[in-house]
Amino acid sequence: MRNIVLIGMPGSGKTVIGRILSANSGRLFVDSDNVIAETAGLSIPKIFELEGEEGFRLRETQALRSICGQRTEKGKGLVLATGGGCVTREENYPILKSNGIVVFIERDISLLERQGRPLSAGDLGEMYRQRLPLYQRFADLTFQNDEAAEITAERILRQT
Fold first, then answer.
1. Can you tell me the distance from the alpha carbon of 49 to that of 17, in angstroms, rounded to the nearest whole number?
2. Is the whole model's pTM more than 0.85, yes or no?
3. What CATH number has the domain bearing residue 45?
4. 44-71 b/e (C-beta count within 10 Å ≥ 16 → b)
5. 44-68 and 32-40 helices, crossing angle to 10°
């Protein structure tokens, strides 16, 4: 069974939807930001403070390689919620695609959660304009998440 890999802007609902998908599909849920923080022994904002975005992105690519290379019990894939900027590194494309269907979670910018997200403090409109073509290129499927997360998760499960 292939992985379901969720990409999208910070605060678009990848983690919430990922947990619902995990519960409803029997797949293990993994949040790449949590893996990065656990491995580093630091919070994501602290990694950005100490190492900058480039240091964080290097850690992110390492984490994605490790996560996407995992085998789960009984051959089930996993549900992976990625960081919003994972698409900014071309080398992440084959990693995410290796055993996964990549799902772009799109959400109106006004609904994005900003708290605790280092890069969301700036101009989200500009970030969205820069990243949208990357999300579209990485994605196999796109789902709008402007309703309840359960509805979006149900739609994803029907098509994956």
1. 28
2. yes
3. 3.40.50.300
4. beebbeeeeeeebbebbbebbeebbeee
5. 110
Cα 69–93–58 angle (5° rounding)? 75
pLDDT digits (tens, 9 = 90+) for 108-136: 887 776 565 555 556 778 889 999 999 99
CA 71 to chain centroid: 19
- Residue 13 sits in which domain range? 3-159
Q: What phi and psi, each to the nearest 5 degrees, are found at residue 2?
A: -75, 160
- Alpha carbon 36 to chain centroid, angstroms: 12
Query: How far is C-alpha 118 from the chain's CA centre?
Result: 16
Instruction: Report the share of the chain in percent with pLDDT over 70.
Output: 89
Q: Which residue has the tokens 């490790």?
A: 66
Q: Looking at the 3D structure of the chain, how many domains does it have?
A: 1
